[in-house]
Amino acid sequence: MSGRGQVSFRNIARTYGNFAALKGVDFDIREGEFFALLGPSGSGKSTTLRILAGLDAPTAGQVLIDGQDVTAVDARDRDIAMVFQSYALYPHMTVAQNIAFPLEMSGHSKAEIGPAVHDAARKVKIEHLLDRKPGQLSGGQQQRVALARAIVRKAKLFLLDEPLSNLDAKLRLETRAELKKLQRALGVTAVYVTHDQEEAMTLADRMAVFMGGEIQQIGTPAEVFAKPNSIDIAGFIGNPPMNLIPARYVDGDVTIGGHRLKTDSTLTGERDVVVGLRPGALRAASDGVPARVDLIEDLGDTAILDLDCAGTLLRMRVSDIEIPNEGDTIKVTARPQDVHLFDPATKARL
Amino acid sequence: MTTTDIASAPVGGGYDRLLARRERRFASALLAPAFVALTATTTFPLLYLVWTSAHRVDLAMPFTNGYVGLENYAVLLADDRFWSSLLVSLVYTGSTVVLQVVIGLALALLVMDMKRGQGWFRLIAILPVVLSPAVVGMIWRTFMLAPEFGIIDFLAINAGLGSQNWLGEPKLAMLSVIAIHTWQWTPFAFMVLLASLASLPDDIYEAARLDRASAWQRFYRITLPLLRPAIVMVIIMRTMVALTAFAAIFTVTAGGPGTATEILNLYAYRKSFTELSFGYGSALAVALLIVTVLISGVLFALRRAK
Ligand SMILES: Nc1ncnc2c1ncn2[C@@H]1O[C@H](COP(=O)(O)OP(=O)(O)O)[C@@H](O)[C@H]1O
Ligand SMILES: [Mg+2]
After folding, report:
1. What pTM, to 2 d.p., does this model score?
2. In terms of residue numbers, what domain contains A277?
3. Source organism's superkingdom (chain B) (predicted)?
4. Which positions in chain A touch B222 (Cβ < 8 Å)?
5. Is A161 in the pocket of ligand 1 (CB under 6 A)?
6. How much of chain A, in percent, has pLDDT values that exceed 70?
């Protein structure tokens, strides 16, 4: 009940006009957890975060923070800090004034504010920028100012809405690692919105996968990666995502391109299924399914092969020593435990 | 021709400079006619005004006409009516500009929060601006302030204040002309500030809410500083116009009763065209010009500061 930074969403819905942006969302975030909201663009992640922050009100449902119903509590009184995707820095204030603002507003004295601002600036390595205005900073520097402003006040909850999406690839990787360290060091509960599954996988303790205004799966990144519980998630998680192939299932085996593949399923009988195979779980084997190499995307240490397997496209990840030539025919298979089965009608995992 | 120019131009920045010079020359050629026209219509009359102010040009007593040097200015400095009209001008300008900005800003803030009807509000608000100040003066004199029948007087009577001589009593007359100018020009401030408000990003207000700023703190610490350039611009533009206002006051009170609403501009007009003292009238006009330039100079300096 007590704790600091526990969050519960109880059946939260949000409609705009007659468009349902959120269709009943439930989740619990534990104290000190790094929780990611992952999903494609438009799936309702930002709406969820804004409802948690109190910037938007749900049409139905309850938001609980530390066991208290805060659904009707104003954003000001929720003790939440947030990093906006746009950074939302105050353009007329210097970096130091930006970082000091939340402290001033909570009535801290000048004597407390000065050291706190320097401390926050040091944590995100922008001490040398304190006298500049946001307009004189690069995107990466602005992002750090936004971070510093969010951590300077020791808020209960730390929300981040796609904080890295406006940074270039190299900076994104660096900042990602720093974010994780920062969150660990502060021990604060963080809720992190992203459409980038790699970010969610690397940062999150647990994540909720959003699709079309609903949460499709909640779990650790490893759980979601290992056992995606629907076709949609299987097609979203992983880079490249799982191969999804319609096939016929008979007593533990599936037939793809006229070849049988063993699964570890114990279902009996015969039915249509969708088979999910991770590109990295495919391997070459002399008794495998023959497939022609159509295209090779060489990524340096690994390569992605586009295979034509009796008319269906299969993508396969191979290490740099095993790269065949385009036009070759290779034989591929997968271990029974790597074959995922989904119901084509309900899209659910079998 | 171009090729030889390129060849003969020094390498690197030299060619850029050549282009820049050519562009400047072309721009000068384009601007020349406008420049000449402007000089003919502004600088020349201005010089003529200064020239006239150094003369005695009195149509009532033409035999005294002639060059008098700074005599008109000496008279002016000792002229109580000049100082009183200058004071009226400053009070009129100061109060109308402050009222326009304060009311305009308040309206803009209100309208920004309106979910519906913003368009209508803007349309109605713009109406006073497009009316001629002389027409506005007439409207106020007849429909609004006429004893018993005017809307304002009617309201005053119903509010228990009794019928007032709005334009006949010195203090009320001053209040009335200030109210009229404010009524006509507040929409301008409103429109400029509304446009400026609408261009402020929403996200910083959300950030401020999460940073626990109250509504007043959001206004005072964020909105006001961000609107500052627009506010200063409105102040500068409206100050210049108010200092040289004429038509509305002329049609409503003509400076009266007595000299209660006689702004400097009106005094210069009366001297020149009622009393036909063109020399002294010109000196008054030059004085007004100097005051206007000084005040706008100060305002522009304030704008640049910080
Ligand atoms: N203020 C709004 N008015 C109307 N529709 C909105 C509004 N905010 C969000 N939406 C819609 O709700 C859906 C979810 O939006 P959002 O939560 O921002 O998605 P995400 O952050 O996952 O990309 C989108 O289809 C979006 O168009
Ligand atoms: Mg979003």
Report:
1. 0.81
2. 243-342
3. Bacteria
4. 90, 92
5. no
6. 99
